[in-house]
Amino acid sequence: EIVLTQSPATLSLSPGERATLSCRASQSINSFLAWYQQKSGQAPRLLIYDSSNRATGIPARFSGSGSGTDFTLTISSLEPEDFAVYYCQQRTHWAKTTFGQGTRLEIK
Amino acid sequence: EVQLLESGGGLVQPGGSLRLSCAASGLSLSNYSMCWVRQSPAKGLEWVSGIIASGGSTYYADSVKGRFTISRDNSHKTLFLQMDSLRADDTAIYYCAKVYVEVSVHYYFYMDVWGKGTTVTVSS
Fold it and tell me: Using the beta-carbon criterion (under 8 Å), do A56 and B102 form an inter-chain contact?
């Protein structure tokens, strides 16, 4: 099983600041990585697919990068509604998709 | 607007069974691949099962293989998850979700539309 490790566990920033979240895979996953946002009491929301592609309707302040084992989600300028938990997900092997444990982005 | 609504969760004893349903509106189930994903404090997010739009092939996580069965009723726009031989570690919120499609490309198993979830508790 491919393990995804997200860091940091918690990130404390202020609105307007830039957020950088990391996801590292236990083996190469090419670019088969997605990012989700989850707010308290809600289901996850797909932000980025295949490492760097924004899903339909996602604001341009969200961007993704990386390939192989190291990936980054960047939020260029934090809005109040961006404070949530973020998860990465890989889909390298058919029907063996896994998620990271999450990074909590909190208001400083 | 596409919406998914799960039901059927509840409290069940170890070894028991439950059948979850997911009612879809705003889309034709026969055109989209669908998944069940669960979330618990202990394990986080865990993909459970998927069913492919074309042909209806089904897939399962190793942790539920042989115990859970995914199916769909296209005419009633409903996705199901039959859960048998339930164990304490199956306790979670269960979400149904639609596989992401962009420009007719199906991105198995990224998911862009999720229901609100239904809670399953396995305990004696």
Answer: yes
Model confidence band, residue B102 (pLDDT cutoffs 50, 70, 90): confident
Contacts of A101 (CB under 8 A, 6+ apart): A4, A5, A6, A9, A87, B44
Query: How many alpha carbons fall within 13 Å on the CB side of residue B7?
Result: 4
Q: What separation, in Å, do the N-terminal and C-terminal C-alpha atoms of chain B show?
A: 40
> In this complex, is the C-beta atom of A91 within 8 Å of any C-beta atom belonging to chain B?
yes
Instruction: Write out the two tokens for B97.
Output: 């979700």
Task: Reply yes or no on whether the pLDDT at B54 is more than 90.
Answer: no
Find chain B residues with C-beta within 8 A of A43's C-beta: 95, 97, 114-117
pLDDT in tens, A16-49: 999 999 999 999 999 999 999 999 999 999 999 9
CB atoms within 10 A of CB B25: 10
